[in-house]
Amino acid sequence: MYQNNKFPFKKFKYNQFNHLKNKNMADLDVQPKRSNPWWLWLLIALIALVILIFLVKGCNDKTTTTSTTDSTTTTTGTSKTLAVTQPDWNSVDFNASKTTDEDVSDTTIVVTGNDRYTIYTLGENILFATDQNTLQGDADTKLKQIAASLNKRYKGADIGVFGSTDSKGSAGHNKELGADRAAAVKNWLITTGGLDSAKVSIHSLGETQPVATNATSSGREQNRNVSIVAFPKK
Fold first, then answer.
1. What is the reported pTM?
2. Domains of the chain: which residue ranges?
3. 89-231 to CATH, choices 3.30.565.10, 3.40.50.150, 3.30.1330.60, 3.30.360.10
């Protein structure tokens, strides 16, 4: 009899224990931790990407602007330097109006020019023999007057010596002859005339810029000449 009563009591105690355990778990209301939705992380990533793109673009724009400014500054500085140290020899008008120079009394020396430059021109027959590039004896006297004027009026100026010919012969030969004659005059101006070699340049026009017609002998004679162009300092 005793043994039969003991078993139901244990079963009752076991059921009561499970009931209390389930009740406590319900009271605690333990819930699993919720994870953030995937679209929220995607939104954050997109915002970060947009900010990064703007930052990179801003740096590139700044670099480009700086490079452009530096390039412009360099170019401008170079242009100003060239304008000061190198005259525009291509702008010389060899048909410029005649002028006078009190230091040049020889009438065979033609003085022309404007407010930008002065041109001293001597005919080929005065300086050289026909088709030659060696200065003749009379050339020394003529060139001394020009050198005196240059040293007095245009000390330190840029001097260009231009050799011109008529249209007889080939263009190549005339170009070479013009250069050789200009070189001969340049050499005289430096060694005898006292000009700074760094300031004297030679230019050959050949037959390209005649001052008279090549159809007549008198015109061709005028076209065979050497011109000394002085660009004063500004």
1. 0.62
2. 1-85, 89-231
3. 3.30.1330.60
